[in-house]
Amino acid sequence: MVEHDALGATREAYDAAASTYAQLFSDSLRDSPLDRAILGVFAEVVRASGDGQVADLGCGPGYITAYLDELGLAAFGVDASPAMIRLARQAYPGLRFGVGSMAALNIADGVLGGVLSRWSIIHTPPQEVPVILAEFHRVLAPGGHLLIGFSASDDPSHPTQVFDHAVAPAYRWWPDHLAAMLHESGLPEVARMVRQPQPTDRRQFQEVQLLVRKA
Fold this sequence. Notes:
Strand content: 25-35%
Distance between the termini: 32 Å
Strand order of the largest sheet: 3-2-1-4-5-9-8
Shape: globular
Structural class: alpha/beta
Number of strands: 9
Order of helices and strands: HHEHEHEEHEEEHEE
């Protein structure tokens, strides 16, 4: 199956790159005030909706999970890469991390106050993304929020575009198209943040983060 082939290839690629990835990005929030701001908003709306547990899906080496913990959320991390999870457990022994697939989460129905998905859907073949969005909806409690980040396509006539990600094949999304898919999955949009590329950025893509809420 395409999904399993893509997931296996992505897992192997991130296993191989895990140590380098952690070294490059572990302090990336320090110079990203916009990311800190949207994560702060996410934490506030989760607390306002009942303050349930939050899953950081595609957590990598765990630094964002740890930041959510600093913001007062009961956060735990899940990633498909065992090497990433080992690094996360070593760096943050007081937090919970586990290996898992976003397409089949080992999480009960309706128990989460929030789900964070930062650039974790980009390696999934577009035809398989609805399965993941359905899982996000399944595990969220009514009123729970999802914050999903991705690189944006620049052509609305092509809802997804392949790009040259350094680790594994990846896809950009036209924001309105992904927002419509989320809405169809029972997760209507609340807000979005769009970051324009800077002249020094290697890729001149917009970065988009959509905040959605389970009805």
